[in-house]
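Tutorial sheet, problem 5. The two components below are modelled jointly, 789 residues in total.
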Amino acid sequence: LTPGEIRERLAELRQAGAELRQRPARRTLDALAQVLEGWSDAGSSWRRELEAELPGATGFSPETVREGLRLGLAHWKGEALRALAAREIGPLERPDAAQQPIIAGFDATAVLLAGSIPMPSLLALVAPLLLRSSVLAKSASRDPVTPRLVARSIAEVDAELGRCIEVVAFPGEDDERMGALLEASCIVASGSDETVASVRARAAPSQRLVTYGHRLSVAALGAAATASSVLEDTARRLALDVALWDQLGCLSPIAVYVEGEAAADAASEALASALAEVERRMPRGAIEPQAASLISHERARAELRAAAGEPVRLHASDGSAWTVVREAHREVLPAPLHRFVRVAPVADGAQLLNALAPLARHLAAVALDGFGSATPRLARDLAHLGASRICPPGTLQAPPMGWHHDGKGVLTPLARFADLELTP
Amino acid sequence: VSRAELDRAILEWMREPLWSEDEERFDALAGALFAHQFECCLPYRRFCERRAATPVGAGGWRAIPPVPTGAFKELSLRCFPAERGIHTFRTSGTSTSRRGELHLDTLELYEASLLASFRRFLLPDLSPEHPQATILVLAASPAEARDSSLSHMFGVAIRELGAEGSRFFVEGDQLLGEDLLRALETAPEGHPLLLCGTAFAFVHLLDALEQSDARLSLPATARIMETGGFKGRSRVLPRPALYLALEERLGVPLERIVNQYGMTELGSQFYDTVLCEPAAPRRKLGPPWTRVRIVDPETGQDAAPDSVGTIVVYDLANTGSVLAIQTADLGRRVEDGFEVLGREPGAEARGCSIAADELLAGAGA
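Model answer (structure tokens):
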């Protein structure tokens, strides 16, 4: 599409949105709930198509895609969407409507998608529609498949709703097309700090801008999670968190902090075994030379630290498929991703918080286990530090649909609220 | 073989007026230097032993285990007692990030290596008639940036090869734009002129020229050497765009713009061949006391021809540290040399996890 054609599509979408807002909100919610029912059904034609196409487009192995979708979408059913809507915007039909705030989406929402993990894209496209805002989405260069299939699934369920979504593709540095896209009154942008900053610089103050930056996650294991009776299970769950989406998601843990030195040794060994096992049934996808080079570099660095007498141990596959480095210190070191995880000892919760302080600005989730009665306090402290999700190991890649990603609501940032203070 | 003997033999090679690619000589010196470093640097020795590499092993210089540049941030990789150190070069970095350190007990090899390379790759037209060049440097002086190997390099180049008027044009992180423009405008015709500095300083110069809408036409004897990247800088200009802008604003043709590939952890540097072999394809070459391998990061073996791999450098100038260095850069073989590959501009991340370097920019390591 040319920039002019993007503007034309935006005008058509605004018109389609206006028509959509003439019909009851309930119909749109029902249709989107039905769409999600389809996506959460592993046997649906949409899921089968996504599972078939995504590996080729993104580089993830078919097994990783299948398992990632199974876990990620298992609870993203129609009911979850209804519950989310009820929580964030209340009942759609209200008996005393005259005294309730009016909650509506913008006439059109531009959605700039990022990365190659399908669930965030699915939700980013559905959320504005639920508020009856049309969506003009720019697909990420790394995943042209998901938005196209999601748009089609919506049109199949509800043709009128289908006319309210359009997916376009162009390089992010194409200023003219980006300018046309960013004329929408609401903009949702995901991506690196640099991408988000460049969109922010272009948005007018009158536009609603909702941004999601790149984030990272970690795990923290207290003594009860590394006891010999449970260690294997803990490691198996953590390995799944690391391995899914090849550790490229903001919910993928890049480091595991373990209470106690001996426990850190044991946990790193157990995690290495678990990652080796995961690799057999769910191989990591192909990676780019830059990523392989960084893994090789960081492995060699770890070996040298070990050679210099530090209590560092490298556990690694023959190729670059997985790596566990048992670190001596809690210091932040490069995170090569692609199933490369560091395990560092902490003495207690206070040390954990200190270790995470430098990461606070970018922290998404913490998988927390084994801290017993200290858990509620520690979870609160982690939330205050910056984490927007505290959950058990093994569930990092299955966030609830209503997770406050980056500490925000799912629907409210996309909504316009109007308060009615009418005298009777 | 003692360290002093090794230094002597390598210096002798560096000071020979004609370069010869002598594989046997390189292999013998690399083997002897590896044996010395294996003996004197305990962490490196243990690292090699973990990889079953010992000085008596077969395989020649290619079998010498390289250490990653990142290791210089956390370990003192030196082959002499700390008290014998006379200088330390540090990698650039922010106040919160760790900086790599190269400890030196002599600067003689570093300086001999850089001067030979300057003559060969940047100033091949020096002659008895013009034994020196006007060297204008867009970087801080060694007095201001004592631990910068780059500043030291430029300082030595000016000291040994610089004609009158050669000087530094960055002070307190500011480009002295007006002084530099004056120096460029008054550069003598028919005399070798070298404008060199960091890529980012050249972007500053271009900004200044653009602001005043100035276009210079430097003499035909002018050439540019730029080095370094844009890490940690707010503005990034891809190299082809930088070169086109330099050509347009300074009148220096592309074939007289040279990129230098070097790093704090190395005693020698690599240069584009455009000045020393103008008829041949642009590629990077280093002096004969260096070797470069392009290594498949998955296997650690040489990458297939034309394939992208990690650049691993073997540099005999590194007598006091470790001669084999695994860089963090990707490259590809080009004929007898190589090219360095940057990240694709505009390449989007595959995931939404923060990239390692972004993380470190925020957290420091």
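Marking note: The radius of gyration of chain A is 23 Å. Full credit if you identified this.
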